[in-house]
Amino acid sequence: MSQQETHGFQTEVKQLLHLMIHSLYSNKEIFLRELVSNAADAADKLRYEALTNNDLYEGDGELRVRISADKDKGTVTIEDNGIGMTRDGVIEHLGTIAKSGTADFFKNLSGDESKDSQLIGQFGVGFYSAFIVADRVTVRTRAAGHNADEAVLWESAGEGDFTVETISKQTRGTEITLHLRDDEKEFADDYRLRSIITKYSDHISVPVEMFEAGTPAVEATEDSEAVPATEGSWKPMNKATALWTRNKSEVSDEEYQEFYKHISHDFADPLLWSHNRVEGKQEYTSLLYIPAKAPWDLWNRDRKHGLKLFVQRVFVMDDAEQFMPSYLRFVQGLIDSNDLPLNVSREILQDNKVTTALRTAVTKRVLGMLEKLAKNDAEKYQSFWTEFGQVLKEGPAEDFANKERVAGLLRFASTHTGEAKANVSLADYIERMKEGQSKIYYIVADSHEAAANSPHLEVLRKKDIEVLLMSERIDEWLINHLTEFDGKKLHSVTRGDLELGELEDAGEKEAQEKLQTESEGLVKRVKDSLGDKVSEVKVTTRLTDTPACVVAGEGEMSTQMIKLMQAAGQDVPEPKPTFELNPEHPLVARLNDEQDEQLFAQWSELLLQQALLSEKGSLADPSAFIKLMNQMLLASVK
Question: Is 86 annotated as a binding residue?
Answer without folding.
Answer: no
